[in-house]
Amino acid sequence: MGDKSSVFDMIGPIMIGPSSSHTAGVVKIGRAAVGLLGSIPIKAEITFYNSFARTYEGHGSDRAIIAGLLNLKTDDEHIKTSFDAAKEKGLTYSFRSVGNASTFHPNTVSVKIWSKERQCTLVGESKGGGVINIAEVDEFKAGFSTSLVTLIIKAHDIKGSISFISNVISQDGGNIATMSVSRKGKNDLACQVFEMDSALKTTTIDYINSLDWVIETIYLPVID
Amino acid sequence: MAYLFETFKGWNAYCTKKNCSLAESVIEYEVSQKGSLETDIYQGIAKAYGVMKEAVETGFTQDMTSNSGMISNGAKKVYHYDKPVLSKEFQNLIARALSAKEVNSCMGRVVAAPTAGASGILPGVLYTLQELHKLTDKEVYDGMLVAAGIALIIAHTSSLAGAVGGCQAETGSAAAMAAGAIVYCLGGDNNQVFNAVGITIQCMLGLVCDPVAGLVEIPCVVRNASAAAIANSSAQIALAGLDAVIPADECVEAMAEVAESMETRYKETALGGLAATKTGKRISKRVLIQDIDILPDQD
Ligand code: SF4
Fold this sequence. Notes:
By secondary structure, chain A is an alpha+beta fold. In chain A, about 25% of the residues lie in helices and about 35% in strands. Chain A has two domains: about 5-140, CATH 3.30.1330.90; about 150-220, ACT domain (Alpha-Beta Plaits), CATH 3.30.70.
């Protein structure tokens, strides 16, 4: 309803300090990465870019990203002590700073994470007020906010695949809010990203997964 | 049609015409704009007030050392110091505003009111006000609703963000919200509430945003204390019936005009003011990460 501000934008949100772009937004990026990987990682390589590169420690964004990778919520008071929790859970990590990455948003963080079975990478932007944009997934251009449910499909780039998937989603009663596709080479792999207003049935996801030109589907719930 | 919070003059006229209180008109706005129920709104406000009071307590009882080390358990020292400058109540007010803000700087849970940088002002003011005047929770909640209405109008005409309007927009707006809430809770009429807003903005006008090392610590923490004090002085003045002379709406316009001409180095960039002092730069060098791979220019 309406794009007018809420009373709770004036007195709120309830948040973990010092600032939502350095804590809440960064935690969300970490949680999105866990969603991609399918589990809490055992190893993480984290790079902070541009304005984040210098201040991530002072603002506690390093603790925030580790908290996210341990799947803590954005308002969890344990974000502050996430390094201890990582030790307990067996997550090892390293941080790096890169400046002058002119193609990246000022507040960008990238994570490369490993579980026993898988590895994935993600580039996230913290846009202020806890709003994020996942700019890249496994080196495919993406562009989703995690404030809606997201379906990511990696598939062979066959003709008509996008309209086929869109059809399947609407058969399930899903309303597609945004969609994007990015390719690696012609007729090679494509990554389709759908943001939807409501959750999909597991049978629908299973069906998409069973198509022989689909390599993998990742379903991300709304991240808070 | 609910009032849409564009000017104080309009807000006043609306409430007079509808014969409703300032707090009621804020409820009506939220119901009409967001489709919420009145009970949910009060629940949300109660939750926010709970978090504010918790933050005050947390700052007094837990270790408050920031990652940079610039903040280190200051609120406790002020709270327990044995010589009040004015009165124990004033000492408490200052200590509580510091406390909640230190919690924010030290990665604890706070309510952005209106922003994270200003998250100590309403807690310090409301906590102390309720204690001194034995207000019911409901009375405090209504004061908070009025504070939210004040912020909606400032956001509409000017801004609440340090990066846009300087610190006058952050701690200045929070102080204006708090001053209005005090006068409202103590039974002031609408004009007195808006005079408190106007007077507060007059006191906070022009304040730049110049955080040392870009961290929300110095001067942010002490500015939360001074803003809490100014909110109280303005409320005292307005409650006695003094006129702000320059109406609240025009004070907010002045804030917007000052914000517009403020150079970017005074807008959270940590390039001017205290951040650019010798000591500020030295601290910045110490606490910020220096080991950075700088990519070559793209063109
Ligand atoms: S100096 Fe800047 S960062 Fe600090 S409280 Fe004021 S507006 Fe916020």
